Structure formats: structure tokens, C-alpha cells
Amino acid sequence: MNARLLFFLVTVVEMSDVLQYCWGKSCGRHKILPAVSPNKTVEGFIGGVLSATALVLLSFVAPFSWQQAAVIAFAAALAGFAGDVTMSAIKRDCGVKDYGTALAGHGP
Predict the structure, then answer these.
(1) d(Cα 48, Cα 46) in Å, to the nearest integer?
(2) How far apart are CA 28 and CA 42, in angstroms?
(3) Residues 6+ apart with CB under 8 A from 61
(4) Residue-wise over 20-58: b if at least 16 C-beta within 10 A, else e?
(5) The model scores a pTM over 0.70
(6) Whose CA, among 1, 19, 40, 82, lies 20 to 30 Å from 90?
(7) Contact of 23 with 47, CB cutoff 8 Å
(8) pLDDT at 100 over 70
């Protein structure tokens, strides 16, 4: 059961990030945090979080009802966004462009 719950949470957070990017590219106009992450938009944030919340279709994987899955997916998507912008802020403060070279064989 723990593996299924982990799968649900990771899928929701990752899909939220991908969907925020897609929504932001397709209809994003208003920057949400331009000083921290200049490409993130309000429209991308809202669209991604709501779309990820709609992933309650995966609730059969998780050990709770679809209503509980929706609330948890919403909270996980918000937490994922908060973590993403926090890491972006830390990177900006440290002058790091990306973490592509942190692991051997990754990045440019």
C-alpha cells in the first residue's frame, strides 16, 4: 500500500509541474513570481494545479476515496509548486543556473 500511495503522490506532483508548463505556454500571460522564476505564470499555476487535482482518476491506486484523493492531490500540487519556487530562489541566491552538472552524466 505504501508504494501505491507514493506512486499517487509522485505522479500528481510531477504531472502538476508538467501541466503548469503546458498551461503556461499555451495561455500564460501574467507572471506569478518574476523575480524568482520568470517563466511561471498565474494561468499556468492555476491550470496545472486544477488539472493535477483532476487526477483523482488515479484514486484507485491510493488508499482513500476519490474525494479524499482530490483534496490530497490539490495539497500535493500546491506543495510541489512551493518546493519548486523555493529551490529556484535558492538557486538564484547561490548563482547556480541549473543542477545539470550535479550528477555525472546529466546535463549539458
Answers:
(1) 6
(2) 7
(3) 4, 7, 8
(4) bbebbeeebeebbbeebbeebbebbbebbbebbbebbeb
(5) yes
(6) 19
(7) yes
(8) no
